[in-house]
Amino acid sequence: MTDTVAAPAALDLGRPWRDGFAALGPAFFTDLRPTPLPSPHLVSLNGDLAAQLGLDPALLADPSGIAAFTGNAVPEGARPLASVYSGHQFGVWAGQLGDGRAILLGGIETPAHGVQELQLKGAGRTPYSRMGDGRAVLRSSIREYLCSEAMHGLGIPTTRALVVTGSPQPVRREEVETAAVVTRVAPSFVRFGHFEHFSSREQLGELARLADYVIDTFYPECRATDRFAGNAYAAFLEQVSERTAAMAAHWQAVGFCHGVMNTDNMSILGLTVDYGPFQFLDAFVPNHVCNHSDENGRYAYNRQPNVAYWNLFCLGQALLPLIGDQELALAALESYKAVFPRELETRMRAKLGLADAREGDRELLEATLQLLAADRVDYPIFWRRLSHFVAGGDAAPVRDLFLDRPGFDAWLATYEARLPADRAAAGVAMLRTNPKYVLRNHLCELAIRQAKLGDFSGVDDLLALVQSPFDEHPAHEAKAGFPPDWATHIEISCSS
C-alpha cells in the first residue's frame, strides 16, 4: 500500500480565508501540501462545531469533505503550511522542533467566533518531522478529538476538534496501526516555542514581528496599557501568564493531567493544546503520572502548576530582548503567582457549593483534598455524589467512598457548618459544576477498540456525553461509574 492517491476536486467551504499566520513570511514556516492517504473514510464529525464555524456538516461528510480533511485535496483558498518552532522538552532544551505532523490550512472567517484556524494533524511528513513519518494513528486521533471536546464541555480553554478521518494505511508505533487525521480548530496555534525559536537564534526582527502579530491580533489592549510604563511586550507576557494560570487552575480543579507540558505544547492564548498522554484522574493521587514516557514524573498532576510557571519563565527569557528590562519581565511573571491560587480557590469553592469567600475556606479545601488522597477516593464520583447530597440527598453514598469513616464524619460536620442557608440551590449549582461524565481512559479505550473494528458508534456516543457532561444521560449511566480493574493497566505514552 502506498501514499499515491489521485487528487479529487478541491472543496469550497463557503467561508472566506484569511492570511493570519501566513502573512508573517517564509522565516516562520514552509509551504507544503499534505500527503494523501489511500481510501479515506469518515470516523466522526463534530456537527455542533461545524455549525458554529458556519460550515455545512453534510458537505464535510461527503467524499470531497473527507478528502479535504484527510489531506487528499486542499480546500479552495487554503494555503497549507507547517510552522517552525523550538522548545524545552522534559525540561531540556531540544532546539529546533516544528510541526512534524501537523499542517495548517489557514484561517476562516466564522459567523460568531472571528477567524478560526484549521489544522490537520497526521497529514504527513514536513521539514520538521525529525525522522518521523508525519502520521497519526486512529487511537491517538480519537483520543485528541474526544478530549478537545471534553475540555470544551467542561468550560476549560482548549483547542477544538472538527473531524476525524481514517485510512487503512499502516503506521508503525508500538505495533502496526492504521492512519488517521484529526482536524483541530483554534484562533491560533502559536506556542511558547515559536518565541523561543527566534530568540535562541537571535533573530530579533522575526521575534518582534511574531510578538507584534500576536499582540495586535489577540492582545490589542497591551498597546494601550499604562502597565510597565507602557511596555507592550511586558504587558503581553503578563496577560499570557494570567491566561496560563487560569487554564492550569481549571486543570487542577477538574483533575486533568496533561502529561507532556513541554514549552512547545503551551499555547500563547492559554488554550489546552496537544492531547497525547492525557488523563482525567480516577483515584485522587496527587503525584499521579499519566505519561508512561515520563520516567522522572516531571509532569505529575501536582507538579503541573509549577511546570506552567517554569514554562512561562522560559517564555519570559525569550521575550527579554523585546522587553529590554529583566525586572519588568520578572514583574510580568509575578501575576501568575497571584492569579493561579485565586482561580483555583474560586473553582474549588464552586465545587463545594460555596458562593462567597470566607476565612477558613483555604483550610477546608486543603482538608478535603487530604481526605480524598488518604483513601485514594475516586475524584469525579466524590464530587458528583457530594453535589447530590447537598441538593437534598443522603450522605451515605458519599461516606461509602471512604475507609476512614470517622475522618469523613469529622470533615462532613465542618463542611455542613460552612454550607450556605439555601443548600438546595447550592446543590443545584454544584451539579452544574461537578461533571457526571469525564473522559476516563477506559472509556476512550473501549471506543477505540470498537473503532479499530470499523464501528465508530462508541466515538459518537462519547462525543455526545462529553459535550454535555453535567447532564444525566440515563441511557449511559454505566459510563459514569467506577473504572474497571483493567483500567489501571492502561499505559499511555508520547505516542498516544
Short account of what is shown:
The chain has helices spanning 47-52, 57-61, 63-68, 138-153, 192-200, 204-218, 221-224, 232-254, 304-323, 326-351, 361-374, 379-390, 396-399, 405-418, 423-431, 441-452, 457-467, and strands at 17-18, 29-31, 41-45, 81-83, 86-89, 92-96, 102-109, 115-121, 136-137, 160-172, 176-186, 256-257, 279-280.
SSE diagram, text form:
Layout: E1 17-18, E2 29-31, E3 41-45, H1 47-52, H2 57-61, H3 63-68, E4 81-83, E5 86-89, E6 92-96, E7 102-109, E8 115-121, E9 136-137, H4 138-153, E10 160-172, E11 176-186, H5 192-200, H6 204-218, H7 221-224, H8 232-254, E12 256-257, E13 279-280, H9 304-323, H10 326-351, H11 361-374, H12 379-390, H13 396-399, H14 405-418, H15 423-431, H16 441-452, H17 457-467
Helix pairs in contact: 4-16, 4-17, 5-6, 5-9, 8-9, 8-10, 9-10, 11-14, 12-15, 16-17
